[in-house]
Design goal:
The protein is mainly alpha-helical. Helix content is 69%, strand content 1%. It has a two-stranded antiparallel ribbon with strand order 1-2.
Amino acid sequence: MVENEKPSGNLIYGVNERPPLRDTLFAAVQHLLAIFVAIITPPLIIAKALNMDLALTGFLVSMALFVSGVATFIQCKRLGSVGCGLLCVQGTSFSFIGPIIAIGNAGGLPLIFGACIAGAPVEMLVSYSFKYLRKVITPLVSGIVVMLIGLSLIKAGVISCGGGNPEAADFGSLRNLLVAGVVLLCVILLNSSKNKYLRMSSIFLGVIIGYVLALAMGMVDFSSFHTGEYASFYVPVPFKLGVEFSISSIIAVALVYLVTAIEATGDITANSMISGEPVEGEKYVKRVSGGVLADGINSLLAGVFSSYPNSIFAQNNGIIQLTGVASRYVGYFIAAMLIVLGLFPIVGIVFSMMPSPVLGGATLLMFGTVAAAGVRIVASQKINHRDMLVIAASLSLGMGVELMPSVLNQLPESVRTIFSSGITTGGLTAIVCNALINLKK
């Protein structure tokens, strides 16, 4: 499509069209409302799991927003061969939460950022060799991994609903469960509304309602917040929190990078279809290759700037359908908004003070949706007896280490770091079992 060429179908503005400023801002805000909570949730969950203080948690949330803005700009702009050149929004990936928490418990933040940086080239290589890896990472395998990601995260969501700390005296109290239940109910009701704008912003509005309720119930602790102690403006500094490397940590995230490459391919394909762009041929191949390459580069940048790996958000494809705006120039405004939000510490600190039940109520449905997406991927395949064995073995071992992590206590620390994540254990099991079964066919 050439510049200003009118789009076909239900689109109002095509990929290369420049909408008027009012329409651009309106579309950008819709995207921002849909992704904001999803971007800040991974750093909040990881921070709570690793018992970080308010200042550090706020910083990580801010850097997640900043990096997401930079990553979104790269995807939309397409710098040379890097980026897909579509209205693709990037944000902090949920897929890495399990392995990151395991690595953080073993060696802290520097080891996490080192693994994210060193593992990112795996996804970059996939962008050039995807057709070969598809024989190993089949839809069945990717569906199993996505299912494991959702199932593993549900535990974190339930813990947040109870109060965040299972050993606390008020864990599972009526007050905590009430707030979490109100947020969950609001998200469900808003998401099932016939009003498309309420649906798009359901999670964001649910969090705001829950936050206000928690404030009214005295659940927000302002004692640790003193404005004078925090900077008024962040200047992103590379490697600010340090970086360390270990082979076991890199292996633990490498598999997830393979899976996110496959997910990115699917998201870019869906975005291309919605945006009236080709989904086959040389232009399509270059677009997918550039998008997956950008996914890896952006995740590397995230590690450099003290954040976690990024991935393309699938929910934005739905917003393109609803608004009829596929213009990649809207992505520039989304990127600018995210960068600005990330540069002001007050944004990260305010959301870092959010009580755990509010976060739990908002994320529980999100994590269940991830697991359901994995089920749908697996169900879309023709399942035979051998495939059932792959599914059974992968879920058994993957969920086994999630439910009973102490089973690995007698193993060397390097081995525990790799297999303490159910996503990694189940994913590797799926790859190995699927490969062995295919060899015997």
